[in-house]
Structure formats: structure tokens, C-alpha cells
Amino acid sequence: MSRILVIDDEPAIGWSLREMLTDDGHAVDLAASIAEGLAAAAAATPDVVLLDVRLPGRDGIDAIPDLRAVGAAAPIVVMTAFGDLDTAVRAVRAGAFDFLVKPFDLDHVAAVVARARAAGRGRSDVAAADDVPPALVGTSPAMQSLVRRIAQVAAGDTPALIIGPPGSGKTLAARAIHAHGGRHDGPFVATSLAALAPAARAAELFAVGTGLIDRAAGGTLFVSDIEAAPADVQDRLAGMIDTGGTTARPRFLAASSRPLNALGLEPALASLLRAEVVEVPPLADRGADLEMLVHSILDRQAAAGRSPPAVTPAFLAAIRGRDWPGNIRDLKAAVEHAAVVAQGRPLDPAHLPAAARTAGPIETAMHGLSTAVREWAVAARTEFSPLPEPDLHNRTVRLVEATLLREALAHTGGNRTAAARLLGLDRATLRTKLRQAGLDE
Fold it and tell me: How far apart are CA 13 and CA 8, in angstroms?
């Protein structure tokens, strides 16, 4: 998943960009001024920056050097409502990757962001040999088990599958395997297949010279969301792994949030990944590590030139008292948020972001539904994309609607009048929908 920083003082534009980019699988940070944008870039390094020109207090283009100075080496796409030549020239001279004129088509924005990400990967996704991966810290039994497993896998050169819940640190585990393995002097190249357009996945991996496999030669290729690979891509990956055996091909590491037997992989690739599986534990299994993790997150801020604040016992107690459904990712965001709010003062519970309330039955069911639809969509893209009209939306609606109709009828004992009332439909409409779903018996 890529992180996109949008710096624009128009709430409607920020909202629409966030909705579109989030739907495309990106994490999105919004800022309404250069000052907010600099703070956001310093707190979480973006992969792409969408930058408005006319902002309160300061011109966006003039601020590009400052964005670079805080570590935002990502491609910058300039946005403006005034598409004149002078502005375009200023943007290009300042090092902007591209130029968008408002009002813009969101599909065009998505395409520009995709190109910017591809350009940025040449810098950000390939780690030099002397890059030090973030530490995997902790003394809990779950963490020590992970460390031992990483050491075992790093000693070999076979492909491996890293599994664990979202935000648990699968990429850190992959970097650790690379850093402690025989290919540590080579590049570490990472990508997420779920973040790529289906039609672009094969080219992204296999393009001669520019594809990730060639760029990772002599090092490690890490592919997350491996289940999003179409069948032909999986077969080509399996062939690449089988014919590897030398540093002319990269070591292959894959990752997923689901176990191997639930991924639906092609047999050849599944067989190769089955030999070495690394399980990254959820944060809920690492309670003894929380204090160490908090200090590690703050120490990394110190390494970036910011003095870490002190941590009060009450703050640590609040950390231990919360659930972290997003695992390390959630914890990191909360601690970094607290450090910004504290402004150098000792951290206490008041500096933490508001905790999400415990999900009730409807929220839990909605999450399950969302997960099921997402998994169906991954499979359906592979199955139906070759068709002239894949029509995934209508296929999904028909599938969900048929299940809902069956449940309503079961609940009312087959009483269609009661079922129609429960569904908020009139009886004639229900009859039509039952007939369309093949349920009008």
C-alpha cells in the first residue's frame, strides 16, 4: 500500500481525492497548508505528493524544496486551477513530476498517481545494501519464535511465504530475512500486487530490464498480496523460481494476510511456497513487547533528528489497555500522533488519538461482509477480466441480493408480505427480484 499526501485547502477536493485514492488501496494524509503538509511528510514519508499551488500563507511550488528537505523525496504532482504556461514552467523547474489543472477527472488523477508511484519506486522500493531494516524488537514468546524462524529462513535461499494480519510487520520480516541472508549485498525490491491494476501486474514483474524481477537480480524480490496474482502470473513466477538457483534471479519472498491453504494459488506456486512459511504474530499476542515497541518508535524519531519525549507510566498503561486491530501499524500511528501533540512534553494518555469504540454485532458483521466481498472480487477479477464485459458490479449485487432475499424469507417462514416489509420493498418488487434471482418457486 502506498501513502499519498494531499496538500490542498479546499475541503471538497481533499475529500474527493481521499475517497478515490483510498478506494484504490492507498493510505491518504490530508493537509490544508504547507505547514501541515511539512508536518505530515515528516511524520510519515509519502510515496506521492499532490500539491496545490495557491495555499493559505504560502505558494505551493515555492515550498517544494522544503518538502524535499523533510524527506519527501517522492514524486510531486502540482495541482492548480490556473493552468497557465508560467505556472507549468515553474512547476517543472521546481522538479514537479506532473501538472494537473482543476477541475480534473478523477480517473486521470488515478492514472497520474500510478505513473508517479512507478517513477518513485526506482528510488523508494529498492533498498541499497547498506540500508538497515527497522528492528524487530520484543522479548515475548511470540516475538522470539518469529526471530528464530527468520534466522532459519535467512540461512537458506529458497522461496518463502510470510503470513500475518494486516499491519503486523510482514514487510519488516521480509527485510530482516534479506538483511541476514546471503543476498544482503544485493537490492531489496518490494511491491504489492493488490495496489497494481490487474492489467499491469505481469509487466510490473516481468518487463525486461525495467521489471521488478530484473531489478531485484542478485537480491530479494518481495511480493505482498500474492493471492492477487492472476493464474498466468503465478505460473510465470513459479517458473522463474524453479529456473533460479543462481544470483541471476532474485530470491522470492511472498506475503499475505491469509494462510496458504486459503489463498487459492496455482499448484506450482503453492508447492514452492509451502516449504518455508513464516508466521508474523498479531500485536495481541505480544503484550510484553508494548513498552519496548513504544520506545523503539520514539527512538526512530530521534534518529531522524527529533528528540524523543519522555513516556509516563499512565501513557504505557493506556497503550496496554487498548485493542490494536491494525497491529503495529496502528500502534506506530498512535505513538507518533501523541509525540506531535505533546510538543516535547512527556507523553500521557491525553495525547493519544481517540480510541475507536468496540465494534458491536453489526460492525463485526459489516467487517466480515467487506472481507468476503473483497476476497470474492480478487477471485472474480481473475475469472472475469478476460471477458469483453466483466460486469463485476452487477455480478456482486446479484450475489449479495440473492443471499439477502433467502435470509429474509427464511426469517419470515416464507411469508412474502412480511419479508417485503423487512426488506423495505413492496410485494410486487420482491416478487420480481425473486424471479430474477431464480428464487420464485
Answer: 7
Q: What is the pLDDT of residue 281?
A: 93
The 3-state DSSP class for residue 76 equals strand
Instruction: Count Cβ atoms below 10 Å from residue 230 Cβ, excluding itself.
Output: 19
Is a pLDDT exceeding 90 seen at residue 421? no
Taking only the tens place, the pLDDT of each residue in 347-394 is 999 999 887 544 456 656 766 677 677 777 767 777 787 888 888 888
Q: Is the dihedral of CA 335, 336, 340, 346 positive or negative?
A: positive
Rounded Cα distance between 202 and 320, Å, is 43
Q: Which residue has the higher pLDDT, 257 or 355?
A: 257
Q: Rounded distance, CA 279 to CA 161, Å?
A: 8
Mark whether 215 and 308 lie in a shared domain. Answer: no
pTM of the model: 0.55
Query: CA-CA distance, 353 to 165, in Å (whole number)?
Result: 22
Strands in 220-224's sheet, in edge-to-edge order, are: 126-127, 188-192, 220-224, 251-256, 160-163, 277-279
Give the residue numbers spanning the domain of 206.
145-281
Q: Please list, in sequence order, all residues whose beta carbon lies within 8 angstroms of the beta carbon of residue 261, skipping any fewer than 6 positions away.
A: none
What is the number of domains present in the chain? 4
Is 161 exposed, middle or buried (CB count within 10 Å of its CB: 0-12, 13-18, 19+)?
buried
pLDDT of residue 383: 78
Q: Do 257 and 166 meet the contact criterion of CB atoms below 8 Å apart?
A: yes
